[in-house]
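The record is passed on directly below:
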Amino acid sequence: MEIDIKAIHRDADVYDVRKAVELVLHSPELYDPNDPKNKGRKPNFEVELGESLAGWTHNGTGILRVTNRVGDRLLQWVRDSDKNKIVIKGRALRLFPTPRKVSPLVKQKLEKAFYIGPEKEKQRKTIENQARQAHLRLAKVQFGVWHRPSDSPPNQGRAFSIEYERDFLSKSEAYIHVVYEHKLIRIDTGQRETEQVNYTILVKFASICKLGTGYDEFGQPFIVFDLYTPPIFEGKSFNTWEPGTGIHKRKNYKPRDRLIAIDDAHARIAPYAHHLRVLLSDPDDLTTFEEICRVAECEPRPIRVSRVDARSLQFFSHRNLYNIERWIKKIEWKCGFQIESCLRRGLLNTQDLLFNLRDAIEGVIRDYGTEASELLHSFSLALRIRRVDETPRACLARVCKEHPAGNPLRLPPGNFLCHHVIITPSRMLLEGPYTAQSNRVIRHYHAHDPSLVERFLRVEFCDEDRLAYRWDRDVDVSWFLQRRVGGVLRDGLEVGGREFEFLAYSTSSLREHAVWFVSPFDDPVEGFVNAEIIRAQLGDFSKLLRMPSRYAARIAQAFTSTDPSVKLRRGQWEEQDELGPHTDGVGTISQELADMIWEAKCSASDSLRKNRVKPSAYQFRFLGYKGVVVVDSQLQGIKMRLRNSQCKFPAHDVEEAEFEIARSFDSPTLVHLNRPVIMILEDRGVKKEALLELQDAAKAHIYLSGDSLEKFRDLLRSHSLGGKFFLGFILEQLSALGLDFKDSPEKKAIGSAFLGRLLLYSMNHSLREMKFKARIPVPRSYQLVGVADEGQAYINEGANPDDVFTLKKGLIYACVQESADKEPIYLKGTCLISRSPVIHPGDVQRVFAVGKPPDDKKFCFFRGLKNVVVLPAVGDKSLASSLAGGDLDGDTYDIYYENPALLPTIQTDAAEYPPGEIWTLDEDRGDATIEDVCHFIVEYINSDVMGLLADRHLVIADQSKDGVFDGQCIKLSKLYSMAVDYAKNGMPVDINNLPKPLIPYKPDWHKAEVTGARELDYYESDRALGYLFRNIDLHELDKSFEGLSSTYAEGTAPLEDMISRAIAPPILQTLNDTVEAPGAENAQTEKLYARYVGEMRAVCTTHTLLDSPDVRLTEEEVVLGTILAKSTQPRLRSDRAYRMRLHAETLVRDIRAQIAPTGDQPTDEEMLDGLRNAWATWGWAQHHREKESIESFSLIALGVILDCLKRLGVLPNIALS
């Protein structure tokens, strides 16, 4: 209802009125926190003051909007006693009921939204208004690059080369101001009376490395920006009814357009010069700007600088860029790629390349031959971290001197060195090459000629900050994406002097906005090959040519990252009937074929043999088939039986084809809670205390990990850390040798600074995941791939139903076995089952696990299956489809076992997930072309809103009294289901009518990891997520924990440290004391170390979250396989960490192989030689503790030593982690 307010004091503002009303409505007389109707939420309300025509803040009247229930109680309270009044500044308000009703949106907010007091809004509005009042006139806007003149002394600062400049005093206007609410600095250009378009330059606080202010030699004030990433450019027509030149509106309610550059002249230099310098027209405005930055909490704050030498040197003139292009085209492509990479990353300018380095680079190409591109790649990495006083030419000479001679990094089977291109709105960045998992197409041409892999490029589209594109609601980006992304896809791109054209994408890469490009080539077997020929060879897509997105999704199967295994001949595979909706995506294989596949995978990775459980299921790609196959003990010989639901397109007739492994399920994965699951469980009756108890147990596990090496090992395994360096195995063996973190009667303190830092980094990683993702491990719960109970298939083929043990509706079977030396665990009892991502309340269901199948004579299909969850194949609807619309083509399911406190008390039906509509071309349109696929990719990037929908769902659920059962949340869950299918159905979600948050504040658990989160933007959530978020405090990485040794004992000689003293006796005993103590001189180890440290630099500089020369990963991060830098987008960190781990794994495998043999069955003599080499490597490293990355290099040697000793029977036979 609406209540009229009168007699408001003239000096009171809306915040005074809100506070006075709050004191009454939230008082014990009107609000009972124990009343179940309140659901623990204080009543919400709105206040609006009447407008004053005389210039006052208000006209003495206002409107109070409340729910009917609260309004009736308030009016009754006022009538009950003359003393019951709402008083402001000594004057009582007069309240009058009205028949007016509030709007539906306001009604929803009043009934459901979390109440936020007026203090936050008042403080925020005050700052916003202060910032808005400062519009400072600019004289000039300049874009350029920082450089250091070759003749400048080391202590002289960098100079600024002006590559683009516009004067805004004589012909136009430009103003700069700070936008507090969006954390950015905005420059508006253009004059309404004389120009059509208002161009805007947006500089985010987060993109600023340094911000300098001062006066130039002529006394003119300047502001200079040293930027991590380029600004954002937007345009808006001054005449909103008439779009400006090049500005095409898609929606008339989106007034602004994203742009590539502000004009043609700027577009030419924008890919190379993005740093910004502006000149103010009024000298007094400089102090005003600095003060507004302080008020608006701009970070970093402006720093006064005495002078910045700024002049136009035209590094990126037409002439210079043309000369660079001509030169690159004349040299070998991989070398040209590295040269262009340096130019586009701002590591070198055209002056450096054309006049200072050209002869030296050409000398490298001539003298180093096939190793030249690798050396130039090392040079590009060295440029990022070179000393201030080192010139680029001196840097190249140093890299040549340090470059290790010998064979390049050896790649494991199924991997290749991939070159990457990143397309941002204004730049094209080149990366690599670095290790990537191959796919069917690349392996096919690699088999013909290994050099052909360099013809394939992975191209990624992202915003300037390397994060996924995100748009403001009033920015139209359709024209921008069609021009920037669509232009590259349709027209191709030139890299290193070579033309590339769009080829295809994989399903996972599309989610990352990445695709494959190829440069046409002559294949020694097939002749001329281009993108069209490659696509045509994959299969028969004729039935899909009217559905562009479905057509592209089927092509994507061939580009899924897979490992090769065995080849099957025609007659060894066949199709079988479906079991209704229950076998969507799953088939069967014989035990013999499963053994062959596992043997092939183990041959490619020897560590898999050590104590692993043979998988019962594989996710695969095979010709036009995809999905999962599970072992069927009844199949004899080499046999695979697939289903029609797994055939996505018919392949060309072949006699033999490769079974490609996308994933093997040889061990269970520990289940972790996450934000969506927690929100749903709480709203379905699970107590927040139960969730907090789980978190406290996980916290204790983390904090106690410093008590012993065994507990540290357990922490690593539970969070999947350190596996690429076999860190868990190393800790296990060192503990067995009598070492620990602290002295005790049984063990000696290890005294390793590096292990201490690894512990701190591991704890920080684990706590950060728990705080910002609510990622809490759930004991005795497992994530398993889903398969179907095939017993019904045998009944359908004639078996007696009484002789077949099958699962009934609501039953599941699961048996987990973590390693070969552990007993299998048969899950029995009531469980919860879900499939991520959960978003609907019914996406979590109760089931009953049947335990170990009976040992009678009945046939039971799943009796011997391990590390899978078997779902029943009965009923009209499959259990998988009831869990967030899942199927059995590789989906994994979370089984919450023996956790009764997590069982919901409120039962909810599963959501219905009907198949979505498919984008189909009109009848008169003809078949789809590759241009239609390109158009779909552009639209996908524009409409990729899964993250937005999931986030909005959680925020509204937190703000609403109804939680996930709120009607807006249910609507969002339906939209999310559509968004999940968008990649294959091609039907986008209309985001223009998405449900909005109930209040303009976010819950405190929503705070990003990045620093600078402003308290005024958040409220303290009263939901479980809020309590869990506030229950975690993160430790700084430069702090140590009490009692943990953090340094070597002062003056400890090489090989006198505790680790060396522990491993020396078994080594000498094994080698029969025939080996001398390792010394500081070892040519072979020095060469090996040079190879290692060079590649380690590549790992540390390539896979950072921020594209900046001074940002590197630490050695500890690489060893653990995590990235601890703060980021607003978890997807970016996950992608970068995956690439980093793959790169590091390749490096570690190569170094280990050069120290000791890694074959299937090395002889004892080979193992003794490996032990001898590893001991020498360890000893050399202990004599050179000061060297770069020496700790991780030592760790590899230590792992080889312990592995050799174990294989030789000197140490307990404990598996590699």
In short: The CA atoms of residues 885 and 914 lie 9 Å apart.
